[in-house]
Hints:
heterotetramer, B: 332 residues, mainly alpha, ABC transporter involved in vitamin B12 uptake, BtuC, two-stranded antiparallel ribbon, globular, C: 295 residues, alpha/beta, four-stranded parallel beta sheet, 12 strands, 19% strand, binds adenosine-5'-triphosphate, binds magnesium ion, translocase (chain A), ABC_transporter-like_CS (chain A), ABC_carbohydrate_import_ATPase (chain A), membrane (chain A)
Amino acid sequence: MTDKTPALRLENIVKTFPGVRALDGVSFEVLPGEVHALMGENGAGKSTLMKVLGGIHQPNEGRILVGEEPVVMANPLDAKAKGIVFIHQELSLAEELTVAENIYLGELPRKSFGRVDWKTLHARTDEILAQLKVGFDARTVVGTLSIANQQMVEIARALTVDAKAVIFDEPTASLTDAEKVVLFEVIEDLKRQGVGIIYISHRMEEIFRITDRISVLRDGQYRGTLVTAETDEDEVTQLMIGRSLDLSRNESHAELGDVAVEVRGLSCGDLYRDVSFEIRRGEVVGFYGLVGAGRTEIAETLFGLREPSFGQILLDGEEVRLHSPADAIARGISLVPEDRKGQGLVLGMNCRDNMTLPQVDDLKAGPFVAEGAEVAIFDQYRDRLDIRTPGWRQLVGNLSGGNQQKIVIGKWLSMHPTLLIVDEPTRGIDVGSKSEIHKLVRDLAAQGYAVMVISSEMPEVLHVSDRIVAMYHGELIRSFTSDEVTEDNLIQAISGIRPDEKAA
Amino acid sequence: MQSRPAARTGGLTGAKVGTFLARQGILIAFVLFMVGFTVANERFLEPDNILGVIRSSAILGVMALGVTFVVISGNLDLSVGSLMSFSTIVVLDLHDKLGPALAIPAMFAMTLAIGAVIGFLVGYLRLNSLIVTLGMLSAIHGLTLTYSGGQNMDIADKEGTWFSVFGQGEALGIPVPILIFAALAALLGIVLAKTPFGRKVYAVGGNGTAATFSGIRRARVVFSCYLVSAFCVATAGLIQASRSMGSQNTVGQGMELEVLAAVILGGASLMGGSGTIFKTVIGVLILGFIQNGLLLIGLEFYVQYVVTWIIIILAVWLDVAAKRGRLLSPIA
Amino acid sequence: QEYRIGITQNNVGVDSYQTTYEKAFIAAAEANDMVETVVLDAGGDVARQIAQMEDLIQQEVDAIIIWPTNGEAVIPAVRKAFQADIPVIVTNSNIAKQGFDFVASFSGPDNITQGARSAEIMCDRFKEMGIEDEAQIVQISGQPGYTTAIERAKGFEDRLPEVCPNVTLMETQPGDWNREKSQQVMEAFLVKYDDIDGVYAGDDNMGVGALNAAKAAGRAGDIVFVGATNFAVGYEAMANGDYWGSIYQSPVDDAEAALQTAIDVLEGKDVPFLNYFDTPKITQENMGDFSKPVF
Amino acid sequence: MAPGQLSTFLKRGAIWGFIVLELIFFSIAGEFMSLSEKAFMNWDNMLLLLKQSAPLGIIAMGMTLIMVNGNIDLSVGATFALAAIVLLDSMTWPFMAAMGDWAIPFAWMFALLTGVALGAINGFIVWKTGVDAFIVTLGAMLGFRGLVFMYNGEQPTSHLNWTLVDFAEAQFLGLHTATWFLLLVTAAMWWLMNRTVHGRNAYAIGDNREAAVNAGIRVGPHIMINFMIIGFLAALSAVVFYSESGSVNPNDGTLYELWVITAVVLGGTKLTGGSGSIISTFGGVLAIQILRKGLGHIGADTETVNLVIGLILIAVLFLDRQLNVRGKEALRV
Ligand SMILES: Nc1ncnc2c1ncn2[C@@H]1O[C@H](COP(=O)(O)OP(=O)(O)OP(=O)(O)O)[C@@H](O)[C@H]1O
Ligand SMILES: Nc1ncnc2c1ncn2[C@@H]1O[C@H](COP(=O)(O)OP(=O)(O)OP(=O)(O)O)[C@@H](O)[C@H]1O
Ligand SMILES: [Mg+2]
Ligand SMILES: [Mg+2]
């Protein structure tokens, strides 16, 4: 492979931000027709390296070569002109515009007088969408799509141009399995056309499924490149975090306590219907289903964000009416939301203030916020969750995606909730921290908390849950204990096949 | 799991200076203007002049303090000028009817009631604040005219009342309006920076959805910001009334934009979530000293307009450039 | 026979002169069985005033009274009324000469003369004090761009050198008809000039603002304050001996004169083209001859 | 029309519903309170309404573009005044005076160029400094006004040219000249925003500027062009209006920015950018003009006019909110 000219090469890239040396002399290359994984812990510098390549950041040192030729990427336009397509980690879409307009953003086909050539635009878009096997068309307004579908719109951009290289920065973080399959087909296609692909992900199984080589970053430094076929997860993990992972499940079953929360016949418009379940203290219940199954909406109802049209919610056996998250929090419910940027964080605020936001009213010294206590809480959870930041003063918006997620988790853990709801808790989290979060969830249960885990990752659900609830189109299909569940019957359940139907 | 600190750059003094500049861009701009004016006219820095400028900026300044809260919470308040006219007229009218001791609390109550209406519309009903306060600008003007019958209000016996103390009095050689401005700035500065309420104001302005998800009652916070604003306006109206002991119905007209300019000049973002009381005070002083400085140099008022334009843009430019670490905007 | 008369005023809320004018106008119209009125306010905006002229023409009123926001911009609108055979009476401040052909009559004060008279009051006072050869004064003018402000300033500036050639007018700044604004302007003047002997303000509201500033600086006693349009505050300040003189101008007279002129025109009486009503000088010396203004 | 369509139409078109309410109200109230024997909804009166909407309306079309783009322009009133001064003053320049009535098209051109240049200044500053447009144009509102005063001190600038006035007062197919300009501008801006790449990019930039930058749209020049367009339209509004009135006070156009923004927001354009429609803005402009005219028609006094206009603004916003309430099950954030 080394005899080919790389499609792209980055040499000795250094990039510093105030107080942070995000990249420290990193070199990296991708060959035509190769899928090259870029791995590393949260905050290792993966996204930053790609932003340097994409013309969004200017490197302090180092150079970029496209083919043999050194280039300067002064802005995203330059990168685009050089055939580099960047699928961002954070969604980068105009929500009020249609799918077609978003996919061809910046290069809408033109007719005379600067008019948009709608016909061509829609025809081309529908072609791409067909390839991606998605359930919406060119004219759909992006804002009405689920996050997963929005991610597919981002991905569709890779197919619009004659690319030399495509960067996927955690494209699967919010995709379900079916969509991942489509994505991998797309990547195969691109590969066959000789496009170089840079693939960033924290999911080992994907990495081993589709990539050819793996380069690893750690603390902004280049740690080495492995050939995928000749290595294994353990070696990669070693390189990434400097040790092996203990992946064994924490089986320390707490005695199941009383029912902490019970939901009876809950419905909310046509978002979900007649849902009943209970979660005991000391129990982790996993909610699994396809996108749009209505799990997030149930969580939001339990958190006082939606008004149920029918049904009851009982906390510790007592019926409650929750009118706002403030009510829910007062009753010991916490929610780690799905959309960390929009719902979880105030990006322009520092790390500490974000983490203690739900409890500012309780952390008081006289009339003032007790900043010392806040810093103590922050330090405690920074250590526990291994959050990488130069200090609590750093603005959350400047953290890497995974570290942002950890701030959100820390914020709710520090509330010591009775019921902790986590919605896609490890989206974008590196393997080390992920297993740490899984442990935390188990520990919390062991301490007698009730935990509701919503996840679209089957291994995650299987790994952490005592019980798994399968949902399909707003209905609760079946509830499994950890002994009953298998991958097969879980997949059947989330496709809407009930046990009795199967028998028939 | 053991924790490692993130990779850091060493104790670079350059970076520290850069960070300081980024934080204090507006302060530096302020110092530059002061030096410039002092060179142009030696009277500029005389204590009398300095006190005079601060005193006449106090009314604008007090209103800007309240508007800072509103702007940080992610909203606008264009009704402050009109509301200040209302407060002034009301307190002058009630002064002769009830006596100053009752007139002042009565005026505060009425002003706060209007503030509460605005806060309800913007906070609880979630109506767009620009339009609501624009509407209130007009409606309150109508209310003031109805109240006064369109007549000027004057205190009949200007000598025989202690009412003049707020606008014309002095303590320790410092004019009372300055003292009120300073005290209120200190109080509100602490509220904003140090209390849970202040924290919530930043959170609501920075990301209202995330704030709600964190259990903050957003509507209540926004509502309270408008109450703070109304309180400041009432205080400004009191100083105004006491200073001139009489007033026209249009006394505050047009001040809303000046107030907003001062707040923005101080670096508060109109998107909400950023700004501080201290910087707003600097913004107020910059505007006050520009006006005064140009007047001392003897330029026509319209030259002042042009210079104010240039200075506003230069000051804010300096501020944002320092924050992003480069002079020109990165947008292509 | 009933006359329907429409009036479009300049900017009613802006000061109590205009408000009192409106009230007096409505009262006078109500007292007169022969007329019915449509009272409109342009809010200081020419475009709105022109629209109101068009509306009045469209409503086919019998006569239109206009208090122009801009003495020239309204001429085409006045011509439209003229072409529709509706007589137009201009009130308070006149329109420009090109428009005279389309106007039945003007009724109002003579602002140029007012400015000149203020200059005379100021000069006379300086002569009494014996400082007519060294006095230095400042001027605080009305809202920039308004005819009344411009004419008063012009009248003052033209007349002053004729009567007191050695008095220097050091600087002019606008006070926007606003007491507070004027107070700020005066504060800066006081810092800037150690010796100010007189202040001419475009109206008493601003004059009193300047007086307040001077009082706060402890320099009110050295300064002769002269204004125009004697407001109640000015009258009181005069009574206290703080304020020297002004021009007595009654909005009630102004409004009644305008309405009467309109009625006369409609009745086909012979009215003079320029109907100035008298606006005499008022100073501390003769103020007993005048009643305190109601506005 | 299917019921579903009707309800979305109603939701989108709160402003049209409001206009209908206004017309009904003033027609009925006019019967009792107006001096005029003519009905409020008299045909000529409605034509006049369109004409009187032109000065604000023409600028509002540009403001819609600017606001959809995620910016705002507070300097339009001052631009309006400065363009008017150039229009009227240029006709007195010796070489122009020598041309007789042929000077008129040149005067128009000079005025329009002034508007474009002022817009370009704003746009360029926004582009290069990255300072928020609100601040840039708030400064320019003062600065341009200063230029207005510099031009001719506090004196009004006047030049009455009867040919020009006759042209401006003319009616073609029953519509006034100003109405024609308003309709043309509305149509042109509708086309620009819905049919052209530039217009669609304007929506994209306003919706998510970072995404637009990442997608390689040249956001800076784009914004500058939009400011030039609104400068042009502010000047065009001045050309249309001052051709008919022949004199400009240095204060003219003050507060126009607020009225224009009000009209645009009443029409449903988001202040945060990314969404808005020219046709709804047209509705917003009409709604304001009907209100002003109607209150005059029924003889409301100044206090009432101020009070009512203010409250109505808020009421329309409230109405719009009520029509657009999402289902009960919606997220309560
Ligand atoms: N704009 C910025 N200002 C300051 N620091 C920044 C900025 N952008 C990134 N950083 C810092 O640079 C480091 C690398 O961040 P980067 O986003 O590249 O991580 P990553 O490897 O993509 O992590 P993740 O897997 O969580 O996405 C982090 O410490 C982050 O806090
Ligand atoms: N069958 C469906 N097809 C498409 N959209 C649907 C369907 N059912 C519900 N929706 C919409 O999809 C959204 C569901 O969002 P979301 O994807 O967050 O659900 P979820 O079950 O929480 O899935 P996930 O957590 O995996 O993203 C809702 O806004 C709903 O209106
Ligand atoms: Mg990343
Ligand atoms: Mg979900």
